């Protein structure tokens, strides 16, 4: 039996299947996403979503979906499924589904009357191009298929409505046609492996409703443009449909499909699902290699990139890919900071920790390749620039105090990873000296000093060693509470916040942690007792009056829960390192048990991937992005560490 599969009863149950979402991607940034039954429930769902370089570089939904109608001996079988305003679902084409599997590529099994066929979907890895393969399993005499495209041509965060500005013309190409609704957009071309009859009959589908958007407190109704209908009389057992941004030779469609199928990582096991998911975050476009933070609505995020980087590259033995991504990010380094979001003129430098996570990822890379001279030779100037910027002070009031600690933030600023803001105010206002930022700072200095010693960089050693010598004592005096037995989350002047949060776990996980072994043990203990759950680590202890155990409601309500109890799988990255330090002999068995607790996630929420977050309360329901880079990376990192320990 397939590892990722669903039967007829699950597929025809709309309530069950619409809670499970699919994702397929190219490495150019294009992707497709919908629910298991094919019903689009988010504005972020679409069959062909493509970055628009000439507009804003962001993803845009070009093709929302296609409706298929199978005609067998003059009998019509409509396979489409839509929800219209008022929760009206029509048609319900999922009733023809017999099964679904995704071990290789997503494959749907259909039966219409007594006629059976399959439909599979694959992206061309290095192109903005989607291929759909229909395989007809019975006698094709008297069988034809009609395809009705529904187009949006809009940013993924927006909705579109019927208007008179759309270009309703079409361009004829080999075995198909192309459309371009608005200027500056790339056209979209529909081409088939067989001759097609296209009838142009433009009209609008009104009031398409997205239930998840309404649930999340957003506008969730739009109109989609239907340009016309393709009709293909089936002559061969296999039919290919290609959707791309420029036309190609249709004789090559079968070869392209076959090549891409052979290049895919089979999702035949839980670890292989993670490897497959990891590939989807790596984007190579316009000469740069980036990590997409999460699907379907995040772009490139600096902090997320560096936290996810070791798990998505090094844990899979992809050392060259690690450097490619780092080099792309370095092009946006400014005043010692990496962008939190965006790039170039749109970059926002409101992240105090992204540069420190860059240094941490470089530290892991150095350990992997065991070539400290190479690392210092290539990156020493960048490392010095970052450290000096923090020492001298840089944007957003990020600066080193006289005692060597890093201070960051101010009114209305949210600079750490706990960055939710409601009505202009951070939900977790952590202005001051944050525990994980200062631990990462110390670890960065110590790592750079080690590299400098290997390379005999005496000037760097003279400049930075005094700070490192005094730092642990200052750190302990500032953050440690002997009475409570754990570290403060942040300190601002005389105020010390002692809410039990996972940020002290990050501090305890680092190779150069400014704490004693006893304190590390106590931090792991309280984390395990109050924060660790089966699907990640809570952001706040349930004992705290501010704790929120469910991530639900409108955006304001969700943002207030985002870092107030919601659990994050990515925090298993520092948990893994901390556990190995405290319990080296038993860590492998404990980690393996934690690792396989996520096996059950492969058939829920985002199929064959790991979600962004989970509720802090049972049953620990996954939520947020259906596929998050640092969530997948944390588990791949954990698996790599388990394998190392068991050698």
Structure description:
- By secondary structure, the protein is an alpha+beta fold.
- The model has no long low-confidence stretch (mean pLDDT 96).
- The strands form eleven sheets. It has a nine-stranded antiparallel beta sheet. Strands 2, 3, 4, 5, 6, 13, 17, 18 and 35 form a nine-stranded mixed beta sheet that branches.
- It has two domains: 5-263, Distorted Sandwich (Beta-galactosidase, Chain A, domain 5), CATH 2.70.98; 270-645, Alpha/alpha barrel (Glycosyltransferase).
- Helix 6 (302-312) runs antiparallel to helix 7 and helix 6 (302-312) packs parallel to helix 17.
- The radius of gyration is 26 Å and the shape is elongated.
- The protein contains 17 helices and 38 strands.
Which keywords apply here?
647 residues, alpha+beta, Beta-galactosidase, Chain A, domain 5, Glycosyltransferase, nine-stranded antiparallel beta sheet, nine-stranded mixed beta sheet, 17 helices, 38 strands, 32% helix, 28% strand, elongated
Summed up:
The chain has 647 residues and is an alpha+beta fold. The protein has 17 helices and 38 strands. 32% of the residues lie in helices and 28% in strands.
- Calculate the terminal CA-CA distance, rounded to whole Å: 31 Å
Q: Strand sequence of the main sheet, in spatial order?
A: 1-9-10-11-12-19-16-15-14
Beta-strand segment tally? 38
The description of the largest β-sheet is: 9 strands, antiparallel
Task: Give the helix level as a range of percent.
Answer: 25-40%
Number of domain modules: 2
- The poorly predicted ranges are none
Briefly, what CATH class of the largest domain?
Mainly Alpha
CATH topology of the largest domain: Glycosyltransferase
Structural class based on helices, strands and sheet pairing: alpha+beta
Provide the CATH architecture of the largest domain: Alpha/alpha barrel
Q: Quote the beta fraction.
A: 25-35%
Large-scale geometry: elongated
If you compute it from the alpha carbons, what radius of gyration comes out, rounded to the nearest whole angstrom? 26 Å
């Amino acid at each position: 039996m397939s590892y990722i599969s669903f039967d007829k009863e699950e597929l025809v149950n709309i309530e069950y299947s619409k809670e499970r979402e699919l994702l397929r991607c190219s490495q150019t940034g294009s992707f497709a996403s919908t629910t298991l039954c094919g019903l689009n429930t988010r504005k972020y769902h679409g069959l062909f979503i493509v970055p628009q370089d000439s507009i804003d570089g962001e993803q845009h939904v070009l093709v929302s979906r296609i409706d298929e109608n199978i005609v067998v001996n003059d009998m019509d079988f409509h396979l489409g499924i839509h929800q219209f305003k008022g929760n009206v679902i029509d048609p319900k084409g999922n009733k023809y589904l017999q099964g679904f599997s995704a071990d290789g590529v997503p494959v749907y099994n259909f039966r219409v009357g007594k006629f059976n066929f399959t439909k599979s979907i694959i992206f061309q890895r290095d192109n903005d191009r989607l291929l759909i393969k229909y395989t007809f399993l019975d006698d094709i005499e008297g069988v034809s298929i009609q395809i009705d495209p529904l187009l949006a041509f809009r940013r993924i965060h927006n909705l579109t409505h019927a208007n008179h500005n759309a270009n309703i013309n079409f361009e004829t190409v080999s075995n198909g046609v192309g459309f371009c609704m608005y200027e500056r957009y790339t056209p979209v071309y529909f081409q088939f492996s067989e001759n097609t009859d296209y009838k142009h009959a433009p009209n609008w589908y009104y009031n398409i409703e997205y239930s998840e958007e309404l649930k999340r407190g957003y506008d969730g109704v739009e109109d989609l443009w239907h340009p016309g209908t393709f009709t293909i009389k089936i002559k061969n057992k296999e039919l290919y449909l290609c959707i791309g941004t420029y036309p190609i030779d249709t004789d090559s469609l079968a070869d392209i499909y076959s090549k891409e199928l052979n290049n895919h990582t089979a999702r035949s096991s839980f670890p292989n699902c993670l490897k497959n998911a990891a590939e989807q975050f790596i984007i190579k476009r316009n000469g740069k290699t980036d990590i997409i933070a999460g699907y379907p609505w995040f772009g490139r995020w600096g902090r997320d990139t560096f936290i996810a980087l070791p798990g998505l590259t090094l844990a899979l033995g992809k050392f060259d890919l690690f450097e490619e991504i780092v080099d792309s990010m370095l092009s946006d380094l400014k005043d010692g900071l990496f962008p939190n979001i965006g790039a170039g003129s749109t970059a926002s430098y409101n992240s105090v920790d992204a540069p420190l996570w860059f240094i941490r990822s470089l530290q892991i890379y150095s350990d992997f390749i065991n070539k400290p001279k190479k690392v210092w030779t290539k990156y020493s100037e960048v490392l010095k620039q970052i450290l000096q910027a923090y020492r001298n002070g840089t944007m957003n009031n990020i600066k080193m105090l006289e005692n060597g600690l890093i201070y960051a933030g101010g009114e209305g600023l949210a600079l750490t990873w706990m960055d939710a803001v409601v009505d202009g105010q951070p939900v977790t206002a952590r202005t001051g000296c944050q525990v994980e930022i200062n631990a990462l700072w110390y670890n960065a200095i110590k790592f750079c000093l080690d590299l400098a010693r290997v390379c005999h960089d005496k000037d760097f050693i003279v400049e930075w060693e005094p700070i490192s010598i005094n730092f642990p004592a200052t750190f302990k005096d500032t953050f440690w509470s002997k009475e409570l037995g754990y570290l403060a989350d942040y300190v601002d002047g005389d105020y010390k916040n002692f809410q039990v949060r996972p940020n002290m776990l990050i501090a305890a996980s680092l190779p150069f942690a400014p704490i004693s072994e006893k304190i590390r043990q106590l931090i792991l203990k309280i984390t395990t007792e109050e924060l660790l759950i089966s699907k990640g680590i809570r952001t706040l202890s349930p004992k705290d009056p501010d704790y929120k155990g469910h991530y639900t409601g409108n955006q304001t309500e969700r943002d207030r829960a985002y870092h107030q109890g919601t659990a994050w799988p990515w925090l298993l990255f520092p948990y893994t390192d901390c556990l190995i330090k405290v319990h080296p002999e038993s860590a492998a068995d404990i980690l393996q048990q934690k690792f396989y607790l996520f096996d059950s996630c492969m058939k829920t929420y985002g199929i064959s991937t790991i979600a962004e977050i989970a509720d802090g309360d049972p049953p620990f329901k996954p939520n947020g992005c259906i596929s998050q880079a640092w969530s997948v990376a944390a588990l791949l990192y954990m698996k790599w560490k388990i394998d190392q320990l068991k050698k």
